[in-house]
Write a structure and sequence with these properties.
The chain is α+β, with helices and mostly antiparallel strands. It has one domain: Alpha-Beta Plaits (2-Layer Sandwich). It contains four helices and four strands, in the order βαββααβα.
Length: about 100
């Protein structure tokens, strides 16, 4: 098993007073991407400074952000995408187990 390459979309908050108005269309958009299997997780930071979303491809992250109602209507002020090498618990535990047994 190898590490999974993921793409993290970072949003910086803009005018949060507009969020409630645009949330239904934003939710419809992220639901569509989740159903397609390209959006794995998302959510806001607890301090209100922004949010992140985890995508399987850079293209999906760019597609999402480019037409997200939160971006188009100022709820989000800026966004960036960063590549991330994710190690899952399953991968970690399997590596620990094989090392314990001296298997490489």
């Amino acid at each position: 098993m190898s590490e999974a390459l993921r793409y993290i979309l970072f949003y910086k908050s803009g005018d949060l007073s507009l969020a409630a108005e645009h949330f239904p269309s934003h939710k419809a958009r992220y639901t569509e991407f989740m159903q397609r299997g390209v959006l794995l997780s998302l959510g806001p930071f607890s301090d209100g400074s922004g949010s992140i979303a985890v995508f399987t491809t850079r293209e999906a992250a760019e597609e999402f952000a480019s037409d997200d109602p939160f971006v188009l209507n100022g709820v989000v002020s800026t966004w960036t995408i960063r590549e991330w090498r994710a190690v899952t618990a399953l991968f970690f535990h399997s590596r620990c187990y094989t090392q314990k047994l001296n298997i490489t």
